[in-house]
Specification:
This protein is of the alpha/beta class. It has twelve helices and ten strands.
Length: 269
């Protein structure tokens, strides 16, 4: 991975966000380790600017937390004396960031280790792929702190683990470790300690090789189909399948497969 200290400055990023490049992959590091990478307004707004205008040569993003934790949630020091208007603003910018991540034009892969709590879990669940290390643990302590999910988690997290489990986590402060989180769906991958970033980069290199229109359809259209009624979803699927198959790159890849039998699907145990 080629680290570029100039990248953050050139894209107008604050000190709490570090950027690096690995080929076509942009590595975005939350750099508030002393605060367990808690989400300040500066961090959220900086990430929002980044995901709203990703460089055109970026084909995948890896989201990583500096130090021992991914993200311990909202920086409560910024909201402890906030007004009603401030609370609405905080929720709005958090929802906007996570929408930008979920509907980014490229795959976003989150590396989860240590605390993945509250707003940090909301952030992680907006990513398309999540790679967890054994140290990762998940919590939604909103109920015990008198607050509520505010960055889209009440929509996204129940779709991953079910509303009953989310209610339990919020009411009781229950936590899940990395293995249970993998089983429930907080992560799609569980890797050895310290291997999360390398594994995420490997996945990023793989998905970046897909046809861009196919990636776009998977990221942008599939979530909408999942939330539609079955009849509307099937109609959207027909349209997207036809559009994707008509793309010149898709046609070339199909010819390569038929003529040279490339990329046959195999299962490696």
């Amino acid at each position: 991975m080629n680290v570029s200290n100039d990248a953050s400055a050139s894209l107008g990023m604050p000190d709490c966000i570090r950027l690096a490049r690995d080929g076509a992959t942009l590595v975005v590091t939350l750099a508030r380790a002393a605060k367990r990478n808690s989400l300040s307004d500066e961090l959220v707004l900086g990430l929002s600017r980044l995901f709203a205008a990703l460089p055109t040569d970026v084909a995948a993003v890896v989201l990583h937390g500096d130090g021992e934790h991914f993200c311990a949630g909202l920086d409560l020091n910024e909201v402890k004396e906030g007004s009603l208007h401030k609370g609405l603003q905080t929720s709005a910018i958090g929802q906007r960031l996570n929408d930008l991540i979920q509907f980014a034009g490229v795959p976003v892969i989150a590396v989860l280790h240590g605390a993945v709590i509250g707003g940090g879990l909301e952030l992680a669940c907006a990513a398309h792929l999540r790679v967890a290390e054994p140290s990762a643990f998940y919590a939604l302590p909103e109920g015990t702190r008198g607050i509520f999910l505010g960055s889209g988690g009440s929509v996204r997290i129940p779709r991953l683990i079910g509303a009953d489990r989310v209610i339990d986590m919020m009411l009781t402060g229950r936590t899940y470790g990395a293995e249970d989180g993998y089983r429930l769906g907080f992560s799609q991958y569980l890797v050895n300690a310290g291997a999360g970033l390398d594994n995420a980069l490997e996945l990023a290199r793989k998905v970046a090789q897909n046809a861009p229109l196919a990636n776009y359809a998977i990221l942008q259209v599939l979530p909408h189909i999942a939330s539609q009624d079955p009849t509307s979803g099937l109609a959207t699927e027909r349209l997207m399948a036809t559009l994707a198959a008509s793309d010149d790159e898709a046609k070339a890849r199909l010819r390569d497969f038929l003529e040279r039998k490339l990329n046959k699907v195999r299962h490696e145990s």
